[in-house]
Amino acid sequence: MSPDEFLRIASSLPGVELVQHSEEWVGLRVRGKGFGYLSEAKQSAQLKATLAEQAAMVGESPEVYGRSWTNGQFGWVEVRLELADPEELTEVVTEAWCLTAPRSLTADHERLLGLTPLSPDLLDD
């Protein structure tokens, strides 16, 4: 997957803003809260996940996903874009967005897709 494809996926989610985080990294935000970063130079992204999801992704596909850092109940994963399956990465990006977006925004989006909303204790307000 290319960085442009990654940004297209992330930008398709409601309320996403792209913010230059540093010279190298572009931040992905929803309502001012970060859920991911992209480095075109490194062809990699970092995405917010639960600790359990972080462990599962790294354990199942260590060539694609790596541990980045943790913060409370969240474990960020580094994604090697060139090795990522587009369908799977779309799910990972969407999940990162869901963990960060306001509950009302995620619930509306998930209802539009015919999904069951995430557990409220995993969502930021």
What can be said about this structure in brief?
This protein has 125 residues and is α+β, with helices and mostly antiparallel strands. It has helices at residues 3-11, 51-60, 86-100, 103-113; strands at residues 16-20, 25-30, 33-39, 44-47, 65-71, 74-80. It has a six-stranded antiparallel sheet.
Any chance you could write out the topology, listing elements then pairs?
Layout: H1 3-11, E1 16-20, E2 25-30, E3 33-39, E4 44-47, H2 51-60, E5 65-71, E6 74-80, H3 86-100, H4 103-113
Antiparallel strand pairs: 1-2, 2-3, 3-4, 4-6, 5-6
Describe this structure in words.
Strands 1-2-3-4-6-5 form a 6-stranded antiparallel sheet. The model has no long low-confidence stretch (mean pLDDT 91). It contains 4 helices and 6 strands, in the order H-E-E-E-E-H-E-E-H-H. With 125 residues, the protein is an alpha+beta fold. Helix content is 36%, strand content 29%. The protein is globular, with a radius of gyration of 13 Å. Strand 1 and strand 2 (25-30) form a beta hairpin.
Structural class: alpha+beta
Number of strands: 6
Beta-strand proportion: 25-35%
Percent of residues in helices: 25-40%
Q: Which H/E pattern describes the elements?
A: HEEEEHEEHH
In DSSP terms, counting alpha (H) and pi (I) runs of 4 or more, how many helices?
A: 4
Low-confidence spans: none
Strand order of the largest sheet: 1-2-3-4-6-5
Report the radius of gyration as a whole number of Å: 13 Å
- General form: globular
Q: Mind describing the biggest β-sheet?
A: 6 strands, antiparallel
- Mean of residue pLDDT values: 91
Distance between the termini: 31 Å
